[in-house]
Amino acid sequence: MQKLAIAAIVVLGCLQFLPATHFRDPADPQRNWIPFDRSRDPVDLPDEVGSVNVFSWISCLDLRTLAVLTNSTLSSSSDPHNISFNFLIPERGTDKSPYYKLKAVLPDSNVTVASQKKIEDKLNVATPEGNLFWSFPGELSPIIIGTTQFSQKRYVYISADSIVKGKIEDLGRIDLGTYAIAGVEDCTKRIGDYVSIDVLNAVQKTAPKNLVYTEPYDKDACLLDFDVLVVEPRKLRKDLIDSIMVWFRAFSLANPRDQIRLAVTLALYDNYVKLPSNWKRADANSDILNYDGPKNICSEGGRQLQEEGYGENWQLYLDQKSLAVLS
């Protein structure tokens, strides 16, 4: 009997090395065994990408834009079940209705909704970095998310007012190499349009060497676009915000948003992967479009105003019944 028991243990142990043939779906209450589909060619496996985490920040809450962003991304994906959405919305206390409304119109989506206050608490708005961030959340939130424990692994940041026509998986499998960020360039604006190379060189000589690029800057270099970014949090420089602060304080442009865009571009200069140009908003052939439906606009005083839509693309991803729930 002892020999039989030992033999049984050895046989069972060897079975652990055989490839799995069935699995259980965690969502199945019956916990039935389901056979794996072996029909796919094994050579396709290296092209597969795991789950894609999508983050988005919205300063003036409008669930219609978030629903269109979600549905358009899922509609364009070849593996929608592996996409999760993480929306950071203005503080609403303990109100869970934004989450429940989104799940009501998109029941099969993997959506989480979190308060922006978590980032506020992390930054402490009394600091210069915090004040800078809250002045330009649209430009800085894609980076700050990766430094505030919201995500420990790679994520794709998409602007909330977007319609995604491309496959988000293509961004999920981008090889970042040693870089922490991949982004699209906006070549309608270049560094030399805002500041002279002489001024750049002067700042470069006086700033701490670890916070600025060590080689000469190119005045014809394009600015970084913030609509789509791929971020690897573990590779982010710990002094990246300090570098942005150095460049932001070095200039005084008429348009503060141009100033922060220039500062971020200079802080990340030659230190990011360039995404394909089809991920730059341009025309109907791009992989990302502007949300063209009605939406809320928040004034500095906190009042919400309604802005009329100007197109029909958004209607492909949000029907009238869902619109009534989200409005």
Automatic annotation (TrEMBL):
<feature type="signal peptide">
    <location>
        <begin position="1"/>
        <end position="20"/>
    </location>
</feature>
<dbReference type="GO" id="GO:0005794">
    <property type="term" value="C:Golgi apparatus"/>
</dbReference>
<keyword id="KW-0808">Transferase</keyword>
<keyword id="KW-0732">Signal</keyword>
<dbReference type="GO" id="GO:0016757">
    <property type="term" value="F:glycosyltransferase activity"/>
</dbReference>
<comment type="pathway">
    <text>Glycan metabolism; pectin biosynthesis.</text>
</comment>
<keyword id="KW-0328">Glycosyltransferase</keyword>
<dbReference type="InterPro" id="IPR029044">
    <property type="entry name" value="Nucleotide-diphossugar_trans"/>
</dbReference>
<dbReference type="InterPro" id="IPR050748">
    <property type="entry name" value="Glycosyltrans_8_dom-fam"/>
</dbReference>
<protein>
    <recommendedName>
        <fullName>Hexosyltransferase</fullName>
    </recommendedName>
</protein>
